[in-house]
Amino acid sequence: MTKYIRRASVFCFVLLVALLLNAARVQVFEAQSLDDNSANRRETIQRYDQPRGNILVQGKPITGSRNTGETYKYERTYKNGPLYAPVTGYASQTYGTTFVESAEDDVLSGTDAMLSTVPFWNEISRFQNPGGNVETTIDAGAQQAAYDGLGGKKGAVAAIDPSTGKILALVSTPSYDPGNIAGTGQSDVNAWNSLNGSSSRPMLNRAIRETYPPGSTFKVVTAAAVLENGIVDGTGTATDTPSPYTLPGTTTQLTNESSSDACENATLEYAMAASCNTVFANLGVKVGLSGMVKMAQNFGFNDTKMRIPMTAAKSNFDTDMDKAQLALSSIGQFDTSATPLQMAMVSAAVANGGTLMQPHLVEKTTKKNGTTVSTTDNKSYQQVMSAYTATQLQQLMVDVVEKGTGTNARIPGMTVGGKTGTAQNGVNNEGVPYAWFISYAQGPDASTPQVAVAVVVEDASANRADISGGGSAAPIARSVMEAVLGSSRG
Amino acid sequence: MTGSTGSSGPVATAATSAVPAVRVPRRRGTELVLIVLAVLLSVYGYCDVGLARNGTVPPGAAGYGAGLGVLALLAHCAVRFRAPYADPLLLPIAVLLNGLGLVLIYRLDLETPDSDAAPTQLVWSTLGVGLFIVFVLFLRHHRVLQRYAYLSVVAALVLMILPIFFPAVNGARIWIQIGGFSIQPGEFAKILLAIFFASYLAANRNALRYTGKKVWRFQFPTMRVFAPILVIWLLSVGVLVLETDLGTSLLFFGLFIVMLYVATGRGSWIAIGLVLAAAGAVFVGSFEPHVHSRVQDWLNPFASIEAGLGASQLAQSLFAFAWGGMLGTGLGMGHSILIGFAAKSDFILATAGEELGLAGLTAIFLLYALLVERGYRAGLALRDPFGRLLAVGLASIVALQVFVIAGGVMGLIPLTGMAMPFLAQGGSSLVTNWVIVAILVRISDSARGAMLPEGVQEAGP
C-alpha cells in the first residue's frame, strides 16, 4: 500500500503545481490585460484615490481637487472653468479626459514613471506618486482679453508667441465649466447630456478642433507663395489682373468686395490692403497648384499630426484641383479650411521672419514638490519662407492695419500687422459669414514681434452687414495683443 | 515495502522491542514555538489591516490576539497530554490558517457596514478548537472509529439528503436553517464518508484486488463488492443534481477514487473513475442549468462584460488576483469587496491573492500542501490499513477541496461553491476541518510511536 500512498501523494503534488502555475498565469502573465479590462474598476479607483496634479497658468493653479468621500475619492474642480476649458479640457470620472488633462494625464494622475525617484522600485512596491503639475504657456491676461472680447458671440481665438511657439491664448466660446461633469453623480450626467444636446456646442474647441474657410486671411499664404516663386517683381509692381476676373476654364466672374476698379492690375501692396480677390486668385493660378500646395503645407496645412500636445484638427488645402478651384482656394474659399490655431501660425511665421516655431501649450511638467520633470523645448516646425519674403509680408500686413481694412487693430506706439477676412459660408453664401482677423504685434522696445493672433467670429445673431474681419474680429485681436504687450512690458 | 500484517511478524516484534532504547522525539516544544509564531503572525496581520485602513491599531487587537492565543494554547495542551507523539506541524498550520482567515474576514467586514462576520467566525473557531480538544482528549485511538463505519455512512447520507428539504440559498440547496444558524451538513458528511470508505476498503481490499472477471486489460470486481461504489457514485451525482452542489459531489467522488486506488493499487480504478466522473460532469454540466452556467462562465469569464452586463463574480475574482500581482497590495489595500456577496466565503482566496500577492498565495498553498503531506506521512508510518486509508482520505479531502475551490476562483476549473479550508467564512466548514486535523493528530500520534492504549486490540487485515 505504501507505493500507492506515495503515488497518491504525487497526485496531490501535481494538483498543487497546477494551482501554483495557474496563480502565476493569472497574477503575472495575464495581470496586465486583466488590469486593463474595461469592467475592472481598480485602476480607476486607484487613480482617484489621491488628488490630481494641477494645471498652472503663470504659476497659479487653474484646477483643484476635492475629496468626495465616495468610491472614486477625489474629484476634479476648476477655478475658472469656462475661460480655460479649451486648454484644460475636462477630467471626468465618468467621461474620461480631454486636451491637456488627457495629454498630460500620466503626470497629473501620478502614474508617469518619470515622477518617481527610483522608477523600478515603484513598480514593485506599487507606491503611487503624488500627481505632478503641468505649467502651461498661457498668458492669463491674453486669455481673459480674448474671452471677454468674444463675449457672448460664437468664436475662437488662438494667440502664439512667434519666436518660441508658446501658445499664449486659446479661447473658444460659448464655453462650459468642466467641473460640472467631473464626477459620477446624476447632476454630472445631466450636465453632460445638456452640453452635448446644446446646438451651440459649448464643448467644441473651436480654436483647434473646428475648421473654417479662412477667407481673405489666406491671402497672406498666397502672397508668400507669390513672392517666394518670383511671380511678381516686387510688392509695388502692378500685376496683370483684370477686374472682374474670369475663373480659368469657366465663365464665372470673380469680383471684389468694393465695386471700385482700383483692384484692376493692382500691386500686391494695394491688393493686400484692399483685399482684392481678383489679384490673389490670378496670382495663385500663376504660382500653380504645386507651388500653392507646398506653401500651404509649409505653414502647416494638411498636417494630420499637429499636437500641442493635444491633437489639432487638420487644416485643409486641396492637392488636386483645376485652375478655377485653385483660384478660389487662393483666396481662402473652395475647400480651403483652417483652424484658428493654423491661421495664428500663418501670422506667427510671417512675424518670426519666415521660421514657424512648433506651437505648444505645455511649458513644463513638475513633481508635486516643484522639481522639473520635463520641459518643452522651443523648436522649429518649418522654415516656411525666406527672411526676405517674410519682411516683405510684414510690410504688407502692417499696411493693412495702417491704411487698409484692418485699422481697428491699430495700437498707438506699437508695430501691428494684420489681415482681415470675411469668409463666405454655406451654399450660395446663405449662411452667416465668418469674420476673421489675423495679426501680430511688436512693442517699441522689442526686437521681434511678441504675439501673433488669429480671431474668428461666427455669430448668427449679428447683423450680417456688421460681420467683417475688420469690424468684429480685429478689436478682439487688438485687446489680446495689448494684453500680451502690456504684460511683457510690465 | 512496509508490511501491513502488523505486529504479528517476528521482524516487527524484534524492531518494536528494540525501540525503547531509542527515545522517539516528541517535539512538543517545536509545536509550541510554531503555535506562538502562528498567533503572532495573525495578530500582526490584524494590526496591519487596521493600520492600513484607519491608521490605528484596531481596538480589538488585544482581545483578538488573546482569544486566538488561548484557543491555540489549550489545543496545544490537549495534544501535549493526550497525543504527545503527534506531528508538531499539524496544529500550528491549522492555527495559522484559521488566524489568517479571521484577519481576511475582519478586513472585508470593514468594507461592509453592519457586518460582524469576523466575530461570528471567532465563535465558530472556538467551537472548532473545542471539538479538536474533545477529539484529542476522548478519541483514544483512531481505530475506535472503525467500529462506527456503517453508522457513519448512514449518518452521512442523512446529512447529505437533509438540505433537500430546506430552501436553496444562492442557487445551491446545501444548507439547513435551524433558528438563526445555517449549517452545511455536507461538510460533516465528508469525515463520516472518509471513515466509511476507509473501513469498507480496508475490509474488502483483497476482494477488490483479486476477484472478478477480466475484460481485456481491466479486471472487474464482482458485483457484490462493486455495488457500493456504484451506489456512492450515483448518490454523489444525485446530491449534485438535487442540491446543485457540484463541489461536494466532485469531492466525494475524488476522495473515493483516491482511497480505492490506494487500497487496491489498481490503476484501472483511476481510469474507470475518470471516465465516470467525466460522463457525470458532462451530463450534469449540459443539463443542469445552475452548473451549466458555471461551466459557461468558466469557458468565457468575460462574456457578461462583452454583453454589457458588467463583470461576473469570476471575472471580478480574476481582476482581484491580477491586481495583487507578485507582492500584493498589502492587507487592507485591495478592492476584492467588488466581488460581492461571496467575497468572505467562496472567494476569500481572491482577497488573499489581491492583498498578499502571488508570494502570499504561494505561502498559503504551501501551508495546505504541508498539511496534506503531514497527513500522508502519518498514513505511511502506520501499519493498520484502516488508519492508513483514513489518513490518506482525510488529507485528500483537504487537498481536493483546496484544488477545487482555488482552481475555481482562479479560472482553472469550473467554479463550485466550496469553502477554502480554515480560511473561508462558514462555521460548518471550519468545525469540520478542525475535526479532520484532530483525527490526523490522533493518527500521527499512533504512527509516531505511541503504544496502543489498553482495550483496543490490533484488528486483523
TrEMBL record, chain A:
A Gene Ontology term for the protein's cellular component: plasma membrane
Database matches in InterPro entries: Beta-lactam/transpept, Beta-lactam/transpept-like, PBPA_dimer, PCN-bd_Tpept
Signal peptide: 1-23
Keywords: Signal
Entry annotated with the keyword Signal: yes
Gene3D superfamilies hit by this protein: DD-peptidase/beta-lactamase superfamily, Penicillin-binding protein 2a (Domain 2)
Domain of life where this protein originates: Bacteria
Start and end residues of each Penicillin-binding protein transpeptidase domain: 155-482
Domain Penicillin binding protein A dimerisation: 52-134
GO molecular function: penicillin binding; peptidoglycan L,D-transpeptidase activity
BP terms from Gene Ontology: cell wall organization
Protein's recorded name: Penicillin-binding protein 2
Organism: Streptomyces tabacisoli
From TrEMBL, chain B:
Keyword Nucleotide-binding: no
Transmembrane regions: 32-51, 57-77, 89-108, 120-139, 148-168, 188-208, 229-262, 268-287, 318-341, 347-368, 389-413, 419-441
Pfam families named in the record: FTSW_RODA_SPOVE
Protein keywords: Cell shape, Membrane, Transmembrane, Transmembrane helix
Record's signal peptide: none
MF (Gene Ontology): lipid-linked peptidoglycan transporter activity
Intracellular or extracellular location(s): Membrane
Domain of life: Bacteria
Membrane-related topology note: Multi-pass membrane protein
Matches recorded under InterPro entries: FtsW/RodA
GO biological process: cell division; regulation of cell shape
GO cellular component entries: cell division site; plasma membrane
Name of the protein in question: FtsW/RodA/SpoVE family cell cycle protein
